[in-house]
Amino acid sequence: MKTVKLKNIGDATVQTQQRLLDAILGKNVAVKMLCKGRGLCATCHVYVTKNANLLTPVSDREKLTLSILTGASYNSRLACQARVLGEGVEFELPSGTYVESLTEIEQLVGKRTNAPILHPVNGRVLIQEGRIITRSAVMQLNGVDFNITETDVR
Fold first, then answer.
1. Mean pLDDT across the chain
2. What residue ranges of the chain are covered by domains with CATH 3.10.20.30?
């Protein structure tokens, strides 16, 4: 068993070779997982802040997905792809909430958001924290396929 630390949430215990995603889910953090853990979307994106070398290497698929993620940085990983090899990995979630469907955000028009609203495919901020969700913001998602497939990251 290995202990990992999720910033602002706490420690989680996972078995060797378990995913960071399993640690997140074990802490009852809601993760959208639009691609169902296949490394094709950005909804389980995390920043590894300590001991990234104690995770499995970044795969080509993960590199490709991270390359389209506007919020990605040198320490970005997809929690569904990063498997824990050693003790002491620390990571944090990006600030924001991913949109799961057009209907979900349409229901929020006219309301103020408590956290940034993020694009489901590229992680770009659609609506800043504290702003009112407008119809024009929703229109930015017209034509977005919320059923993520491998062709969406090519």
1. 87
2. 2-92
